[in-house]
Amino acid sequence: MKLRDLVEYVPARAAEAVLGALPRGPADRLGLGAGSAAWRLGTRREVVEEQITAAFPDRDPEWVAETTRACYRHFGQEIAAIARIGRYGGECLLSRFPGGAEALALHREATGGGGAIIVTGHIGNWEAAGAYLAAAGLPMAAVVKRQRNPAFNDRMLETRRRSGVEPIYMQDAHTRIPEALREGKTVALVADQDAGRRGVFVPFLGREASTFRGPARLALSQDVPLFFGAAVRLGPDYGWVLEAIEKPPPGKGALSEYTRRWVSRLEAQVRLHPEQYFWFHRRWKTRPPGTTAGA
After folding, report:
1. What does the alpha-carbon distance between residue 188 and residue 178 come to, in Å, rounded to a whole number?
2. Is 176 inside a domain boundary?
3. 8: buried, middle or exposed (CB in 10 Å: 19+, 13-18, 0-12)?
4. CB 85: neighbour CB atoms within 10 A?
5. pTM for this prediction
6. Count of domains in the chain?
7. pLDDT of the chain along its 295 residues, tens only?
8. Residue 183's domain spans which residues?
9. Is residue 57 part of a domain?
10. Does residue 291 sit within a domain?
11. Cα distance between residue 275 and residue 234, in whole Å
């Protein structure tokens, strides 16, 4: 392991061990405090404020500042939750999803126990969402990106496998996803980052956003249901959102329309819980041809 990777990994692993060992209440409070500290340091704060301002143009600067701080605190808290998943697996979440049984019933009714695609965005706690579904008995796989730091990469794989989620690297997705679907697994994709020029542009929070085609393309090509899912924090527990996305009529615009439909569900959740969205990514980095660069 390179020295730089070691310097990054050791303190992060130590923090994870502490957070995972603490009871949930103290761990959450420590995570909230860490988020507040990151906010004070100003880590990417300008990016967060720019994007929130553009997405909510009718809100005043005070609301933007409050939402920005709440965003940092939220993700500090969710890092603590992920640390507990790494220690205890997804079983520690089973009592924290009061609406989970209804969502699972909807999924089973739509799929008949077969494979499906669940697409989500960086809202709430996407790691907890997958871990909960796996712990509740749903065969799960998730498409993941290989991390630059090999120690971080191995630890993330270990955490996902411990929670019962099979990780699929992006470079293996074209072969492994169809296999997983044939095995009756539900494949989760977090697909709301900027997709560059390869993406399809669909409306998101008032602007056209380059969005990955993969979830819609897979659902169409493999003829499986497409769901939008999210686990949003509601006090000490999570609210579970699972919505079946109606398949559009076949034709040239089907892929774009399918993508637009799931992105509209994500937008609805962001408007309800703006402090739980990962504004740290430059979501509108790629602009449609003929327009200037945005935040």
Report:
1. 13
2. yes
3. middle
4. 25
5. 0.93
6. 1
7. 677 777 677 878 888 888 889 999 999 999 999 999 999 999 899 999 999 999 999 999 999 999 999 999 999 999 999 998 888 888 889 999 998 888 889 899 999 889 999 999 999 999 999 999 999 999 999 999 888 888 878 888 888 888 889 999 999 999 999 999 999 999 999 999 999 999 999 999 999 999 999 999 999 999 999 999 999 999 999 999 999 999 999 998 999 999 999 999 999 999 999 999 999 999 999 999 877 654 4
8. 3-276
9. yes
10. no
11. 12
Over its C-alpha atoms, the chain yields an Rg (Å, rounded) of 19
Q: What is the C-alpha to C-alpha distance for residues 165 and 27, in angstroms, rounded to an integer?
A: 24
